[in-house]
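Sequence in, structure out.
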Amino acid sequence: MLGRRRQPAQPQDADWLVVHASQTGNADYLARQTAATLATGGLSARTIDIADLDAAILQGATRVLFVASTYGEGDAPDAAARFAAVTMAGDVDLAQLHYGVLALGDSSYTHYCGFGRALDAWLRARGATPLFERIDVDRGNADAIAAWQHQLSHLAGTSDLPDWEGPAYGEWRILERTLLNPGSAGAPLYRIVLIPAAGGLPDWEAGDLVQVSAPGDPDLPREYSIASVPGEGRIELLVRLQRHEDGSLGAASGYACRRPGTTSSPCAFAPIRASAWARTPRGR
């Protein structure tokens, strides 16, 4: 990725702003699908990363939809750190604003959908008017996503909704796990060998990515490059173990690299084309 600074979106460029606060990409994907749905009704919608959102943009907008993930125990995702610390701490008059919130989370955590709920409460406190009640999504629950789509169809004035099908996940098992850099001062790097829990191997090509969903991960997708070819009869990944400042392990890398056991460990993976990921996951 080039180190070019993003230019903040201007609210007057579109009828709607669709803001995504994503930790791993799921909120970004749903925000783009949200904008596409509004477009089917002839409405112009522009997506914007919450990292580029500030009080001035919000005060210049009249209709905003938020897709907000939560990190860990109720925290804002990294991209929303500045917004949560600065903008949400300020005294902003948003009486002109109508909004909706899709909150992504995991009900196994105490502060389920914590950031999405805090965002909703802050918007109300600043005088903004909800278009409908906040919709909470527990680990990608299809019924909750359908409820969001239903609200969008009313806003767009159409029932001709685009396909929101995401990658098809399947159960995989860790066959081998090898530490490649013992004694290194850097983060541990593991070679992970995977085989399907049932059925044959999917098709993939050199340079494809794998999306990883691990239990306890509130926001589905992590992406890793595939380091093997179909002829080898298995998928191999090179996974660097991530460790947060509080000492906890990354949800996906910790699950793949440190979960006890090997062949008894199920994981969910979906190969996607690396060249197409910037536009839409495979299966669309």
